[in-house]
Amino acid sequence: MNPSFAQFRFLLPVAALLLSSACATLPPPTGELAAAQQSVARADGADADQYAAAEIGVARAGLAQAQAELARGREADARRLALMAAADADLAYAKSREALATAELTQRRAEIAELRLQLQGDGQ
Count of alpha carbons within 13 Å of 78, Cβ hemisphere only? Predict the structure, then answer.
């Protein structure tokens, strides 16, 4: 059976739809940039400058690069850099929280040791 023009005419809209969806681009990475900015702000709030200076510095630099790439119209690079900046900021936040928790644990252990000494002195 030879294909007729009617059969091809049915396939043309389907082919056009597939072709147009293949050429569609992703939306600008504004969500990724906003998420990276929030991650940097959260790390700042956790004293990352003091406890994870290198990581927060990398995150800030990555965010600035992402913003610059977006301004140049390089959306794919901006998206990639924003995601990396958010990850670096999350690492800075985690390191800061760990350092704060470790400092608090050390303080509590010292308080316990002091209380033990007081109890031993009272028992004599």
Answer: 20
Q: In the chain, how long is the greatest CA-to-CA distance?
A: 109
pTM: 0.73
- Provide the residue type at 95 as one letter: K
User: Which distant-in-sequence residues (6+ apart) come within 8 Å of 93 by Cβ?
Assistant: 39, 42, 43, 46, 48, 52
Place of tokens 């294909």: 3
- Local confidence pLDDT in tens for the 124 residues of the chain: 555 545 555 555 555 555 555 445 688 999 999 999 999 999 999 999 999 999 999 999 999 999 999 999 999 999 999 999 999 999 999 999 999 999 999 999 999 999 999 999 876 6
